[in-house]
Amino acid sequence: MPIELILSGKVQGVACRHYCSRYGRMVGLRGSASNMYNGTVRVLLDTDDEESARAYMRALLENPRQMAFYGFIERIDVRPCDGPITGDYVF
């Protein structure tokens, strides 16, 4: 079942969607990232692999590869998602 992540912090207008897609591709995940009207970014991951999802979230928070990202993520809320994987940045 897909996983929905809601990223809070300074995540819009700072290359967050691109940042999310790059880390997603690096850890072998498919998904999408979209700006939401409330100032968050919604990431949908097409995976059942909880370990990969945790590694992805850790990478987003820690940025171990020092990728260009001009904001910060304060919190990631996680919940299951039963809809299609769609968004602005598909990876």
Please, could you describe this protein's structure?
- With 91 residues, the chain is an alpha+beta fold.
- The chain has a single domain (3-90), classed as Alpha-Beta Plaits.
- 26% of the residues lie in helices and 32% in strands.
- The protein is built from 2 helices and 5 strands, in the order βαββαββ.
- It has helices at 16-26, 50-62; strands at residues 3-10, 31-35, 41-45, 72-80, 89-90.
- It has a 5-stranded antiparallel beta sheet with strand order 4-1-3-2-5, with helices on one face.
- The longest helix is centred in the middle third of the chain and has 13 residues, at 50-62.
Quick recap:
This protein has 91 residues and is α+β, with helices and mostly antiparallel strands. The model has no long low-confidence stretch (mean pLDDT 94).
